[in-house]
Amino acid sequence: MAAVGDSGVTAGYARYTYRLRVSPTARSALLSEWDRGRWVWNQCVAESRAAHKAGKKCGPAALDKLLTGWRSRHEWLRAGGSVPQQQAVRDFAKSRAKALKDIKARLPVRQRAGMPRFKRKVSADLTLNYTRHGFRLKGGGLHLAGGIALTVVWSRDLPAEPSSVRIYRDGLGHWYASFVVPAQVQPLPTTGTVIGIDWGVKETATTTSDDHDLPHPEHGKKGSAKLARYQRMMARRRPKRGQAASKGFRDAKRQVAKMYKKIARQRQDTARKWAKRVVMRFDQIAVEDFRPKFLARSTMARKAADAAIAATKAELISMARKHSRVLHLVHPAHTTRDCGQCGARTKHALPLSERTYTCMACGAVSPRDKNSARVMLVRAGLDPAGADRGRPDGPPVRQAA
């Protein structure tokens, strides 16, 4: 469906993230809450596996009853807040339902969501989720259930009352609070123009407008030299099994995490700026519903990961929804074989080394990715001149956002 609305209509929900100043007392309390939530998650995994082996069902309602029993039997578990523990059960149930849905849909193994696994203390990311009953904002601070008070660095105002908050810690040890609030539509003036977008590795996004192509930024490649140096430092200083890590190892590990965070922020900044330019210029956008997960198993894995196609696509969808632009997600099948002018389809797939598309039916010659971008317009019904002779049995538009 199309993302339509006006200034008074919500466009789903948005996250507003802020840095936290955490005192030693609050840090100890948060770590204790995380240990309890991780224990609840691991118990859910064990119960789910036991129920599966016995041929029984283990749904969210059954897990809620188990949580009540666990809290009544364990005083240390009862000492923590019930809200984050209930959210741990909800997150487990949602993760398990997603995996079962993918299995029933008979998706390939590489595209399925994995079944929930046990969380290890040394490797699992620290995350706590609180619903509206588990926190409150008072005096500029964030107060969580259990008497945990946190200082929020308010870099900007919250546009509305938050419905939930996620507390998490990144690889550098920094604490953040991510609030969920209703997002307001901010419509832009109509321009009467449309654009087709094709994803790729050589260029992250190739469009029907030469001015809006997104070249591969190569943020990861530019930072690979420093990253490799810090990783070699970690390898030389890695402690032996059973020994405590040295200060040099911890410093090198921190530098690696800092570098990864910088690269991730650069990719996000590039994606947001490009998505903003596209949304401001075009009313309707036809974009390939590309799933880049399979590239992780190919020889292009590193370059594809550096292109951050999934993150760029997510930013474009979010920006289009925010500014009330119509965005069509087009099925990617045969987009490199169809002609964007007449709709004819080649008999054989083009190898990646062949970068020019030549139509044997109408004689049209164009760059391969430019032709695919035009095919997006044809399939979304945004280019009448190209759609008149389009294939009626071609893959349909998957959905619109």
Mean pLDDT: 84
Low-pLDDT stretches are 1-10, 384-400
Count of helical regions: 11
Count of strand segments: 15
Residues in β-strands, percent: 15-25%
Q: Structural class of the helix and strand makeup?
A: alpha+beta
**Major beta sheet, specifics?**
7 strands, antiparallel
Strand order of the largest sheet: 2-6-7-1-5-4-3
Radius of gyration: 25 Å
Q: Rough shape?
A: globular
Number of individual domains: 2
Helices and strands, in order, run as EHHHHEEEEEEEEEHHHEHHEEEHHE
Helix content: 40-55%
Domain Probable transposase IS891/IS1136/IS1341: 183-290
Family: In the C-terminal section; belongs to the transposase 35 family.
Organism: Streptomyces goshikiensis
Keywords: DNA recombination, DNA-binding, Transposition
What this model shows, in words?
The chain is of the alpha+beta class and 401 residues long. It folds into 2 domains: 10-184, no CATH class; 188-217 and 269-401, Nucleotidyltransferase, domain 5, CATH 3.30.420. 41% of the residues lie in helices and 20% in strands. The chain contains 11 helices and 15 strands. It has helices at residues 24-54, 60-73, 75-78, 82-104, 219-222, 224-237, 247-281, 301-307, 309-322, 368-380, 384-387; strands at 10-21, 127-131, 135-138, 141-144, 148-153, 164-169, 175-184, 194-199, 203-207, 214-215, 284-288, 326-330, 356-358, 365-367, 397-400. It has a 7-stranded antiparallel beta sheet with strand order 2-6-7-1-5-4-3. A hairpin with a 6-residue loop joins β13 and β14. The longest helix is centred in the middle third of the chain and has 35 residues, at 247-281. The model is unreliable at 1-10 and 384-400 (pLDDT under 50).
